[in-house]
Design a protein that fits this description.
Radius of gyration: 16 Å
Number of strands: 0
Number of domains: 1
Structural class: mainly alpha
Number of helices: 7
Largest sheet: none
Helix content: over 70%
Distance between the termini: 52 Å
Shape: globular
């Protein structure tokens, strides 16, 4: 446990709490969190997670922009849902990504948990992309990622981070329910 991990954890909680409530400030706060976690995960030899945080940096900017200007007539973007086909494609791509990245990390690095770490990375990228597009299903992807992450981070003695992801499980459920309510409320208004 390091002071940087503790600060990153606090920013992570704030970020997801704001995301659940669809507050735009989730993006700049998330930006601080991911920058701090680049270091935390690199020093724990969770290289895939460290690389993931680097990829999150431009995704934070994209999500920030899309939430502000991605709706009709460049207004705030609404919550939308994926089709069954889209959900299936994203899920399959996630597992393919996990297999390929896990194999690479296992054969080319001293990564501590190459396949579970690759699962976290692959599914997190999908969840983050879907979240930046305000897709309801992003919360389902986050829920699965969070469960796996708790185990990996406990194994690596990242106790604050593991605790953060345990809280994320509850927040993902809250986010799913909140965004579902927002989505169904939009549909009722349109009728």
């Amino acid at each position: 446990m390091s002071p940087i991990e503790i600060v990153a954890t606090v920013f992570g909680l704030a970020c997801v709490g704001l995301t659940v409530k669809e507050k735009i400030w989730c993006w700049p706060i998330g930006l601080v969190q991911v920058i701090l976690y680049v270091y935390v995960f690199y020093t724990a030899k969770l290289y895939s997670d460290s690389i993931l945080q680097v990829i999150y940096i431009p995704l934070q900017f994209y999500g920030w922009y899309y939430w502000l200007k991605g709706g009709n007539r460049r207004t705030e973007a609404p919550v939308t849902v994926l089709s069954i086909k889209e959900l299936s494609i994203w899920t399959i791509l996630g597992f393919i990504g996990m297999g390929a990245w896990g194999w690479f990390m296992k054969t080319h690095t001293d990564a501590a948990c190459p396949y579970p770490d690759a699962f976290i990375v692959s599914m997190s990228l999908i969840a983050q992309w879907l979240m930046s597009k305000k897709k309801l299903e992003s919360w389902g992807f986050w829920l699965v990622v969070d469960v796996v992450a708790v185990g990996v981070y406990l194994y690596k003695h990242l106790y604050f981070t593991s605790g953060l992801y345990a809280v994320y499980i509850g927040l993902a459920i809250m986010g799913l329910l909140s965004w579902f309510k927002s989505y169904t409320g939009q549909k009722i208004i349109k009728c």
